[in-house]
Amino acid sequence: MSDKKSGEDLMEPLIRSRTFEESEMEITSMIDLTFLLLIFFLVAGKMDPSGQLQLPPARYGKPVVEKSSIILTLAAGEEGKAVVYCGNGINDQTRLHSADLAAQEDEVANYVEKQFLAGAKENVLIKAGKGIKQREVWRISKAATRNESVQQLYVAVTEVQ
Question: What is the pTM of this model?
């Protein structure tokens, strides 16, 4: 036997590789990966709690009659909580002095109910000062509309001409 390969061995025909028919590409795994990445970024993303919602000024607003409305004024308090004043404007005599949020909401609901029983007021108008977060306005509006007599709730905006 010889160590050298014969010429016939070197000249063996090459085996042709199989050709595949055109088929559809399987993208199920890519779709799964896309949804996993989407979920990851939604969960891992950090929301900016310091961002405040700036309500736009109203160009075409409907005026509210103050005589037929119960007015609640909100001012900025400590730790982003709203300080509630019963009536138009900020006055220490009309301030609700509840430290607990649930108690403050109860006071707002009681004030609105007493105002409805005392006069012919049918609307609630909330005036929120600059720096009040939207969640605080929503919390107070929810408390103010506990009474079923409330026909309409308005949030005051600056009128632009």
Answer: 0.59
How many other β-carbons are positioned within 10 Å of the β-carbon of residue 71?
21
Residue 7 has pLDDT above 60, yes or no: no
Return the structure tokens found at 48: 């900016």
Collect all residues with Cβ–Cβ distance below 8 Å to 126 and sequence separation of at least 6.
71, 72, 74, 137, 140, 141, 144, 153, 154, 155, 156
Element (H, E) at 11: none
Q: Which fold has domain 66-155?
A: Nucleotidyltransferase; domain 5 (3.30.420)
Burial of residue 108, with CB atoms counted within 10 A of its CB: 0-12 exposed, 13-18 middle, 19 or more buried: buried
Q: List 153's β-bridge partners, or say none.
A: 124
Q: Over the chain, what is the mean pLDDT?
A: 78
Q: Is residue 18 within a helix (H) or strand (E), and if so which, with residue range?
A: none
